[in-house]
Amino acid sequence: MAEKRITIRTTRFDPDKDKAPRLQSYDIPFADESMVVLDALNHIKAHVDGSLSYRWSCRMGICGSCGMMVNGIPKLTCNAFLRDYWPRSITVEPLSNFPIVRDLVIDMEDFMHKLKSIKPWIIRKQEYPLGAGEHRQTMDQIDEFRQFSECINCMLCYAACPVYGLNNEFLGPAATALARRYNLDSRDQGIKERLPVIADAEGVWECSFVGECSVVCPKGVDPAKAIQQTKLDTTMRFVLPYGNRDE
Amino acid sequence: METVTSDVVKEPPGSAEAASAGSAPRVYKPEMPLGWWLRQRHYFLYIVREFTALPLALWLLWLLFEIQRASTGPKGYYPPESAAFVVFSVIVLGFALYHSYTFLSLAGVIINIKLLDKPIPSRVIVLSQFAAWFVASVVIAAVLIGFAR
Question: What's the ipTM?
Answer without folding.
Answer: 0.86
